């Protein structure tokens, strides 16, 4: 590498050596954050920071206003109902009707402490519905914290990278796992963190069909709800709708985060939506752990109750107000987050113009959407090597290796924290990188 790099070579090398990291490219998101903070401080240069997936825009104001009002009225002193306040449950049910076009009884619409608590609770309950079926199948790449959740719970998982199994190929691949009879449930995110692929209707039907055949429950993580910007998903009650397995399956759980769609990450509130059929379903094996064999009851009073006894009271009022505004057509939440897609479009082109490749680039035969994340590689370098070099050029991101991806050449970029006034810097640094690596 040319030692005349955009960020002072000596400072970067020094900070890497002080960090104790053997290979920068293998560091966790938080380790990279700390290293880059230190380099920025010493060099006085700002990085193009693409490592962390945090919202880059202010919280949805109707939520903040409703939450302040609720706090002033005294809700902080009162325990909220574990299953959620009625207005929120109704608005969640309206929301999934308006934006996914599915019917779910408010009973199965539950607030959770972020969608992370939703998945934790679901892992707990779903791995107990059938004795001997205590594994989750991840359609990867995926969000590493989900695997960490299973690890602490003591449950196992299977995984495959969907890259080579798009379209009809997904059927045989899924069957090869499900037919072994050990899988209780499947999890994937859509749009996908980290690759930003979105499953097609054909693929969602295949997932629904096979999960039904093998009695497996589908967990669909909609953390980036409405953000397939190729379609306008923001008009209530009007097609096109957010793509979801829920339109093809009877037994599903949806996790809808308010962190990115409503920039409400700090208040830790998300939604768990359990289909009517699954909510009422009886699983005698649940009696080993719960008072009842009914799934919904076991989730609310046997799982969420001991985990957190419900979700922050004031945040429930915030979310209810946000959803009501979206349901009534007063808040175009999709419009508010389109900035992520616009930034990704420009940034991806800069990478392509400078010798980089997009790793996950297609949904069957269609180009993937521009959104919160994209994945890239540079010929001749592994993802770990690439990250280790990019740090000298003032660009930080994370390796796909920690996400269950087989694409060892890949790196994930998150666009949310990159400011548009940094695009000039990004272009200059990518050019310098390409020049030095040809
Ligand atoms: C795929 C995915 N699921 C879940 C989450 C966490 O959501 P929440 O903040 O609602 O817990 C994230 C956050 O980055 C995510 O990317």
Question: What can you tell me about this protein's structure?
Answer:
With 438 residues, the protein is of the alpha/beta class. It folds into 2 domains: 9-52 and 333-437, Aspartate Aminotransferase, domain 1 (Alpha-Beta Complex); 61-327, Aspartate Aminotransferase, domain 2. The chain contains 14 helices and 15 strands. The protein has helices spanning 9-19, 29-43, 61-72, 86-100, 114-126, 144-153, 169-178, 201-213, 276-280, 295-308, 313-327, 333-353, 383-390, 423-437; strands at residues 48-49, 109-112, 135-140, 156-161, 183-189, 217-221, 252-257, 270-274, 357-358, 362-363, 366-367, 373-377, 395-396, 398-399, 411-414. The strands form 4 sheets. The protein has a 7-stranded mixed sheet with strand order 2-8-7-6-5-3-4, sandwiched between helices. A hairpin with a 2-residue loop joins strand 10 (362-363) and strand 11 (366-367). The model has no long low-confidence stretch (mean pLDDT 96). Residues 53, 114-116, 143, 189, 193, 221, 223, 257, 259, 265, 270 line the site of pyridoxal-5'-phosphate.
């Amino acid at each position: 590498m040319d030692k005349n790099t955009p960020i002072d070579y000596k400072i970067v090398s020094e900070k890497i050596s002080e960090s104790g990291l053997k290979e920068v490219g293998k560091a966790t998101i938080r380790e990279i954050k700390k290293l880059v903070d230190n380099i920025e401080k010493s060099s006085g240069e700002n990085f193009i920071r693409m490592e962390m997936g945090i919202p880059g825009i202010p919280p949805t104001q109707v939520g903040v206003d409703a939450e302040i009002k609720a706090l002033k009225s005294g809700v902080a002193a009162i325990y909220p109902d574990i299953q959620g306040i009625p207005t929120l449950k109704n608005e969640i049910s309206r929301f999934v009707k308006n934006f996914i076009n599915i019917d779910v009884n408010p009973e199965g619409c539950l607030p959770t402490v972020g969608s992370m608590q939703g998945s934790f609770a679901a892992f707990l309950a779903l791995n107990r519905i059938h004795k001997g079926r205590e594994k989750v199948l991840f359609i990867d790449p995926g969000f590493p914290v989900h695997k960490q959740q299973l690890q602490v719970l003591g449950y196992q998982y299977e995984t495959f990278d969907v890259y080579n199994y798009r379209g009809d190929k997904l059927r045989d691949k899924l069957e090869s796992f499900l037919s072994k009879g050990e899988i209780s449930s499947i999890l994937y995110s859509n749009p996908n963190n980290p690759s930003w692929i979105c499953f097609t209707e054909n693929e969602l039907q295949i997932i629904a069909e096979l999960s039904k055949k093998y009695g497996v429950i589908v967990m669909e993580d909609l953390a980036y709800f409405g953000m397939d910007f190729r379609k306008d998903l923001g008009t209530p009650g009007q097609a096109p709708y957010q793509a979801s397995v829920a339109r093809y399956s009877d037994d599903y759980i949806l996790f809808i985060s308010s962190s990115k769609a409503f920039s409400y990450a700090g208040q830790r509130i998300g939604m768990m939506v359990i289909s009517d059929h699954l909510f009422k379903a009886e699983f005698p094996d649940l009696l080993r752990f719960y008072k009842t064999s009914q799934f919904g009851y076991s989730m609310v009073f046997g799982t969420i109750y001991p985990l957190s006894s419900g979700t922050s009271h004031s945040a429930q009022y915030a979310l209810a107000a946000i959803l009501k505004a979206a349901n009534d057509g007063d808040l175009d939440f999709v419009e508010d987050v389109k900035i992520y897609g616009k930034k990704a479009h420009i940034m991806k082109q800069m990478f392509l113009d400078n010798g980089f490749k997009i790793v996950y680039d297609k949904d069957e035969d269609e180009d993937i959407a521009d959104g919160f994340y994209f994945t890239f590689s540079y010929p001749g370098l592994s993802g770990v090597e690439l990250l280790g070099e990019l740090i000298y050029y003032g660009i930080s991101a994370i390796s796909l290796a920690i996400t269950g991806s087989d694409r060892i050449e890949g790196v994930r970029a998150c666009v949310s924290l990159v400011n548009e006034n940094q695009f000039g810097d990004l272009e200059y640094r990518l050019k310098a990188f390409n020049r030095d690596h040809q």
